[in-house]
Amino acid sequence: MKIIGVIGTKDTGKTTLVTKIVRKLVDEGYRVATLKHTHTGFDFADKDTGKHKEAGVELVVGSGEETFFLLGRKMVLDELVGTIQLLGDFDFLVIEGFKGMPYANISTSTENEFTIRKVDPFSLKEEELDELIEVIKNRSYCLLQGLNCKKCGFESCRDFAMAKVQGAADDINCKSQPKRALLRINGHPVPMNPFVQEFISKTVLGMIDALGMENHKIEKVELIIKNK
Ligand code: SF4
User: Fold this and answer.
1) Which NCBIfam families does the record cross-reference, listed alphabetically (predicted)?
2) Which end of the chain has fewer CB atoms at under 10 Å, N or C?
3) Is 159 part of any domain?
């Protein structure tokens, strides 16, 4: 899952741009998730879920044709991305806000070192959007693993990220994305090299096999360990 941010000051068209990017990617057949960052919290006061929250619960879940989670605590970006990865096989995650994140972004106003384009969402022409989508595909990248393993040809994950946003590594991707197993401690993803992933996967699957689960077609295993 590649991550692309949309940053900019208030009322500069961030949501307009997110909507245009998402529509285009979805039209091309990609599976897309979005994440919206806000400093002010969300207003659900007039909704049933808001009333549940007001009563003091820590988590409200809305269940129907769609599912909605309202969690009464802040989550850091890595934790959010890790959770989104668990929810589905998305090709792109488009993030509105989070201007300090180490991922490629499109800016509607002030740029930073991870900005790959500055655009005016309100005057963006169709051909400019097409070109923007190609840039996003080439310069965005997955959750940084922090392994600094050099398998991508760069000395560190940060060097890899800078090369991507500067357009010097369009065809290169991180070679150490988790393929077999994802470990999260206190909600935060923990980088594991392929050997450790293989070791954990085979150990857990071996234990499950010993439980006599042969009638179940096992595609994914989720194991949560509480340490108290
Ligand atoms: S392959 Fe991935 S984890 Fe290894 S240095 Fe490159 S970006 Fe970092």
Assistant:
1) mobB, PRK14494.1-2
2) C
3) no
